[in-house]
Amino acid sequence: MYAEKTVAVVVPAYNESLLIGKVIETMPDFVDYIVVVDDKSTDDTVQAVESLAIENPRLILLCHEVNRGVGAAIATGYRWARDHHIAATVVMAADFQMDPDDLPRIVGPVCRGECDYTKGNRLFRGESWEMIPRYRYIGNSFLSLFTKIASGYWHVADSQSGYTAISLPALERIDLDDIYPRYGMPNDLLIKLNICNFRVRDVSIKPVYNVGEKSGIKVRKVMITIPTLLMRGFFRRLFEKYVIRDFHPLLFFYLMGMVLTPCGFLFGLYLMLVRIMGSGVAATSALFAAFLFITGLQSLFFAMWFDMEYNKDLK
Asked: Which residues of the chain are modeled with pLDDT < 70?
């Protein structure tokens, strides 16, 4: 227990027989349950966990009959924790890329009731640029920016970090059957948490790389699927939060900005091409294009500012 609250750690695993033993053996003593969810591994992951479970009463193994994705594996662990009324549920990877020494900082704010969800942030530290592969660092930074806009949690970064802790009330409120089943799960969960007005906090954690892990992320695929997921989630959040559950004029600012900005840009591009081809362009047409584009940008900035103000207490 931590701060007199029960703690479970969900470990989603797929072909992690090499390092999962190290993850389990270094788990802090205050963790009450270690819930390993095997996502239909084809190696010896299940056998490795079963052998460790003989001498470790904290260890619980759940197995998927088919491979469903890391998000689905986490959701399975979440259901177990929810059904067993665990006060704080942590997610740690099975590839030992999450330092167990950071676990008290991750779970502490949730156990003390300071917030409903904490997530590790590897980008706070100065050494992150040197330790994290460049393409992953840059890609993560862009996805973090888009996740801020989509989720409404403007104060969080490192959106792809899976080192998290969540409270029991949040687990009971979130529809676990509707969680995105693959690598976009942390982004999708943040959007759902914001719709329900749960408090989220970033926690600085140590980046861990080159410990023998093998990333299963296909960068090209993720850079398409996650932005698409964020776009859908963004519109769902606006509708559910600012139409169904409440009302806010930022909807009109977002709508106006999304219409006027591309219209102004495309009209200005058209005028520029006409000018390059040798035809004349009326000054009023150029001013109108600039007016559309600038007004659209201002509307988007106002909408973001209103969104930030509305969600500033969810820290």
From this structure: 125-131, 133-135, 209-222
